[in-house]
Amino acid sequence: LHANHLEKLIMDQNMVSETIIEFNQQEGIERIVLDNNLFEGQISQSYYTQPYLLRLSFSNNLINGTIPPYVSCVDNLVVINGDGNQISGTIPTQFGLLDNLQELHLHSNGLTGTIPAKLGGVLKDLVQLDLSSNQLTGSLGDLDQLVFLAWPGMN
């Protein structure tokens, strides 16, 4: 996608069936919302090189692959929503470097392994966390700031 002054890309609920969109570095893109389509493939590094990106949402698609460690390159990210895809592998420890992250939604994927140590305690602004319907183990640490938590086996 080539658009020099794009601030928001909102393409939710269109049933678009293509490989996930590639980006050149955009001057001021703040929001990418691709929910409820049929996008497939991996989220490329081009998404994580957007310096002003606040919200990245690609829930309910056919996105696969792993979460790359360079996710932490987007310092301003406030929301990551990747629910209902086919993402596999582990949650990178680099999530702990996203100081501004308030919402992390990755339920209903194929994530495995141990949750990065004290993910809840490191991300001081995190208020919503949904990692349910994956195969994750471990402790979340300090969760005092959370107002929403979905976790497998919670009552």
Question: Any idea what the radius of gyration is?
Answer: 15 Å
**β content, as a range?**
25-35%
Could you give the count of β-strands? 12
Q: Major sheet, described briefly? A: 7 strands, parallel
Approximate shape: globular
Overall SS class: mainly beta
Q: Order the strands across the largest sheet as they lie in space.
A: 1-2-4-6-8-10-12
Molecular structure report:
The termini are far apart. The chain is built from 1 helix and 12 strands. Helices cover 3% and strands 26% of the residues. It has one helix spanning 119-122; strands at residues 8-10, 31-33, 40-41, 55-57, 62-66, 79-81, 86-89, 103-105, 110-114, 128-130, 135-137, 148-150.
Furnish the topology, listing elements before pairings.
Layout: E1 8-10, E2 31-33, E3 40-41, E4 55-57, E5 62-66, E6 79-81, E7 86-89, E8 103-105, E9 110-114, H1 119-122, E10 128-130, E11 135-137, E12 148-150
Parallel strand pairs: 1-2, 2-4, 3-5, 4-6, 5-7, 6-8, 7-9, 8-10, 9-11, 10-12
